[in-house]
Write a structure and sequence with these properties.
The structure holds two protein chains of two kinds. By secondary structure, chain A is an alpha+beta fold. Chain A has helices at residues 11-21, 121-161; strands spanning 29-32, 45-49, 61-64, 72-78, 82-87, 90-98, 102-111, 114-117. In chain A, strands 1, 2, 3, 4, 5, 6, 7 and 8 form an eight-stranded antiparallel sheet that branches. The two termini of chain A are 44 Å apart. In chain B, α2 (50-60) packs across α3 (68-81). The chains are: A alpha+beta, B alpha+beta. Chains A and B meet through α1 and β1 of A and β2 and β7 of B.
Chain lengths: 171, 126
Amino acid sequence: MDVEQPGAAEPRLIAKELQLEVSSKQRTLHFHGESMRPFLVEGDQVVVEPVEWDRIRLGDVITYRYLDRFPTRRVVRKTDDELLLWCDNWPDRSFKAARGDVLGHAVARRRGDDWLAAGDLAWKLARVRAMLRWQLRHTRRVRLPRTLRRVRRAPAKILRMVGLLPPLREK
Amino acid sequence: MHYRVVDENVAWRVADQEAVLLHADSSAYFGLNQTGTLLWAQLAERPLTVDQLTGWARSRFPDVPAGVRDEISAFVDSLAEHDLLESTDIEAATAPSTAAGEETPPWESPTLERFGELEKLILSGE
């Protein structure tokens, strides 16, 4: 569903988007909420840089415009013109961002006095961990139950084939 | 005296032919009218003097008033007062473009409006 972006041309909203463009270690942005815990927690300071569409990778944490807010979530799937996004701490929900609404990607985080940058090992591990969790969650739902059902029914099926169990009654 | 946009402190974007400027350090944000936006775009390309800007305006707008230099001078002063422009010794290597072929809006006195200051930007997870 297309979401109208009312007031997109309002000076205040434009200025807010410009704040994203000039964010840096000296001009950090404030993260609010628990949805990206443990990677981002309430009060973390974040640096967001503009990013070209072609350079967005799965596992990136991106910021996009949604009405007058700036959600910041992890990319789990990418098409030509849309991103599917996931919050590390909200495994049951997913979100979409249109190509034109993406404003940038997180490149650094400050928690207390500690900085973590996108090139750091801990950042990369968090990306891998989050993507694995997403894959496991969405793979298991589709495939494992069917496999498990087949495995569970296999002994009875074999016993029926060799005549040690009566055939299933037709309903 | 030449003036240049303080690139390291100013981000800007044009919407509906009018620019919104953000001063990154103070988080103050401003609006320019259409004429102001065209003058700002010239300044963003290269350092210019008030006289150069006036010459450019005269070549671009057929209906500039006699006191156009004073209007532009006041506009530049207000930009410098808000730390959006600064004087520089560096001169432009090229003259301002005459923008031939572009649609010319009617002249209006260039204005800078200070809208206010933004609070720290919040990235919402929710």
